[in-house]
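A.,

Following up on our hallway conversation. Structure tokens first:
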């Protein structure tokens, strides 16, 4: 029987902390299950953990932000002092509304981000498989997914290529003047790498070379886009041969280091680092002929579709308010469910007691008819009572007290 004011969200996001801070709070695939298990041992029984390039956040119920931040620090490389300086806490309706804004892309660095919903779904699937979500959280997530779907079907927020990968390609184009005829090295072939490759092909890039620790995965993507693959052992040579290097791996530390770059070279080179933690050693920028573009430098404000997407923000916010109101109503209704069950049992007990008093006077057929008649009467009374209880869900304590007193129901 959750209440809206019980929800709490804590975290570090791109609105409050730059990349150098966010990367230290990144949670690995192994860290999140461990965090969920420890949270359960601490009495936090319904928990959702979201860790992406631009945010590390925990949503649960209760008022224990220090405990939640403690878990974030324990399972990442972040510190308590950074939490105190950059962390945020949202409570009650603000916490719930925040999750809706994240999932629909309103809270994203790239407005309407098309990839964030997949990350939210992955966080939900992991929490569900770890059995760390209760009925209220499951219901909340279904409302969130419905809000996202409505934001795409009832508005044009999803117009254009609202993705980090697309913004990266546009930033690369701006840095180099054009991508037509350019040779590009793409390091990493995960989801971001795949989408980036698609956008590069669309921009008419001269030649794209894929390089990945798993050459088999790189070749699958290469076949789909008809591009070249290089062996991981040739990373240094390939970096030297390309003026644009886009890096998007899941490595917890830089894969492009000082060892991969000739720091005395005078030729211009652009590194696009789409990873958090960063995959390109920032020290490489000491070469005046090298430009490193990282996640904090990306935006979609110059994209032709931005104005159209931004015009849809009020429409999406209205959808969110509608779904938050619906979820709030559901939560309130759940608070009268125990009273409904208790009332059902009480009326059934009364019915059975009265039938027992006259059962010896009934024929077999009369007993069947009496059972059917009394059951219908009780169901009618229950139907009106349940409707009234749910209609008065905004003051469940008052109506529950009246019903308990009226039917002499002992509180559980």
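Then the amino acids I'd put at each of the 412 positions:
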């Amino acid at each position: 029987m959750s209440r809206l004011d019980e929800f709490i969200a804590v975290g570090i996001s791109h609105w409050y902390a730059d990349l150098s801070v966010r990367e230290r709070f990144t949670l690995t695939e192994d860290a999140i299950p461990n965090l969920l298990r420890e949270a359960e041992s601490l009495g936090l029984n319904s928990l959702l953990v979201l860790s992406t390039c631009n945010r590390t956040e925990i949503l649960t119920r209760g008022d224990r932000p220090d405990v939640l931040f403690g878990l974030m620090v324990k399972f990442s490389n972040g510190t308590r002092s950074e939490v105190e300086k950059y962390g945020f806490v949202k409570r009650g309706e603000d916490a719930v509304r925040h999750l809706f804004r994240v999932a629909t892309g309103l809270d994203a660095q790239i407005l309407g981000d098309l990839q964030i919903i997949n990350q939210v779904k992955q966080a939900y699937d992991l929490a569900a498989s770890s059995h760390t979500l209760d009925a209220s959280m499951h219901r909340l997530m279904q409302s969130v997914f419905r809000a996202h779907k409505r934001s795409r079907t009832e508005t044009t927020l999803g117009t254009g290529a609202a993705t980090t990968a697309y913004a990266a390609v546009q930033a690369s184009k701006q840095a180099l003047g054009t991508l037509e005829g350019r040779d590009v090295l793409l390091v990493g072939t995960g989801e971001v790498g795949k989408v980036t490759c698609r956008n590069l092909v669309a921009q008419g890039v001269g030649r794209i070379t894929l390089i990945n620790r798993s050459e088999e995965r790189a070749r699958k993507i290469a076949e789909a886009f008809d591009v070249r693959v290089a062996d991981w052992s040739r990373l240094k040579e390939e970096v030297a041969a390309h003026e644009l290097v886009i890096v998007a791996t899941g490595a917890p530390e830089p894969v492009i280091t000082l060892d991969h770059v000739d720091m005395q070279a005078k030729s211009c080179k652009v590194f696009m680092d789409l990873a958090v933690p960063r995959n390109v050693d920032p020290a490489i920028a000491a070469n005046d002929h090298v430009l490193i573009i990282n996640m904090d430098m990306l935006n979609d404000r110059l994209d032709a579709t931005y104005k159209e997407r931004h015009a849809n923000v009020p429409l999406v916010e209205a959808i969110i308010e509608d779904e938050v109101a619906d979820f709030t109503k559901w939560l309130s209704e759940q608070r009268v469910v125990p009273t409904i069950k208790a009332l059902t049992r009480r009326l059934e007990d009364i019915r059975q007691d009265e039938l027992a008093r006259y059962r010896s006077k009934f024929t077999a057929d009369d007993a069947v008819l009496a059972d059917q008649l009394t059951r219908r009467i009780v169901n009618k009374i229950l139907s009106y009572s349940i409707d009234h209880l749910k209609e008065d869900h905004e003051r469940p304590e008052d109506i529950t007290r009246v019903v308990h007193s009226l039917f002499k129901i002992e509180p559980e």
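The mean pLDDT is 90. Curious whether your intuition agrees with the design.

B.
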